[in-house]
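Homework help board

Subject: predicted structure for assignment chain

Our instructor gave us this sequence and asked us to write out the predicted structure in token form, then describe one feature. I got the tokens but I'm not sure how to describe them. Can anyone check?
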Amino acid sequence: MVDASVAAKWFLTAPDEGLVAEAVGLLQSFAKAETQLLVPDLFFSEVTSLLWKAEHRGRCRKALAEAALDRILALGLEISPTTPLLKSAVRIARDCGCALYDGLYLALTAREKAPFITADQRLVRVVAGRLPVVWLGALL
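My token output:
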């Protein structure tokens, strides 16, 4: 499982962007069917928002943002609906002191007993030892 912080690095590859190689390596592993990637349905809204913000702030051109969105939609990621996760996500968000959308990823991780890969070091720290969360930088 990955979150939008990882997916953004698949496309926003400016020289000052960290962890791009790790993120792209994960995507390549998925493309070779070596890795499965599960995402909650909110993943697509989050990625789209990140791309729009990057375009709005001049970090990427409109054409790149649109092409990135097309590619994300065409990847064939396994999608899980978030509605069944809401109660668990709220509990996790309360317990960990994280945002609800992070709680949704964490609830899916808990339900699936699958590792969750994120570029968000703060999130990794707040859930350390509770759930299988992996910082993207630890992959290589």
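Reply (TA_rk): Your tokens look well-formed. For the description, you could write something like this. The chain has a mean pLDDT of 95. That's the kind of observation they're looking for.
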